[in-house]
Amino acid sequence: MNANETYWxxxxxxxxxxxxxxxxxxxxxxxxxxxxxxxxxxxxxxxxALAMSAKKYLRLGEVTDFTPEEFGESVIQNAAxxxxxxxxxxxxxxxxxxxxxxxxxxxxxxxxxxxxxxxxRMKDGINTxxxxxTSNAPDYLSYHLNPLxxxxxxxxxxxxxxxxxxxxxxxPTPVIxxxxxxxxxxxxxxxxxxxxxxxxxxxxxxxxxxxxxxxQELVDEFTAYKNFEGEFVxxxxxxxxxxxxKDGITHSDDISVASIIV
Length: 262
Prior knowledge:
This protein is α+β, with helices and mostly antiparallel strands. The protein has a single domain, classed as 4-Layer Sandwich (Phosphatase 2c, domain 1), CATH 3.60.40. It is built from six helices and 14 strands. The chain has helices at about 45-60, 70-80, 80-85, 145-155, 220-225, 230-245, and strands at about 1-10, 20-25, 30-35, 100-105, 105-115, 115-120, 125-135, 160-165, 175, 185-190, 195-200, 205, 250, 255-260. The strands form three sheets. A seven-stranded antiparallel β-sheet has the order 1-14-11-6-7-8-9. A five-stranded antiparallel β-sheet has the order 2-3-4-5-10, covered by helices on one side. The radius of gyration is 17 Å and the shape is globular. The relative contact order is 0.21.
């Protein structure tokens, strides 16, 4: 197995507020993506803290001790300790999504907190899960730290979590879920399978004439790897960057991707 990651600043940002981690070892492989909220302060720091907190539980093998809800709660509570260490930070720095995937003993598990994209490439097809909040305001784990912020979020009108699932060889209808319910995906995997988690920056790409590029058209650009040695994700994204420059393609939002090859 191998794992790799990269993140890429959007043209509307002064600092990249996405972060990604991926690692493969003898016990498991994992991929983590965190996307900070541009409306909050210091989220570039917070996204890293959240991803590192999730990494802690994965590397210690403790992730299996929790339900998906308990895992998210433990990750955010652990990450919140940075506010005690750095007093000029507030809990709002942790306003970030969290996508976590890991493979252990030929079994894949994915937890998705907030919006983003999961891609599972297999020999006989591709499964994708795309999550979008109708309010365009993701349900961040950090809202668990402040009852008032959680209440204000819950009171947003017409806010639903739209989950678009396309699974080979069948295509289920879209799923509507309540905010703060993590999306969970799990299955057995085979050698050669590729699992990628991608932030919602994939929705921000536009052609040279400023028409939006649907995320479905970009899946291969980020996950159709030609080989899996070394920094295979970075190579693929670097090639796409060159294509974007040549074709006048831009993206306003940061984007991060982390992938595992079984």
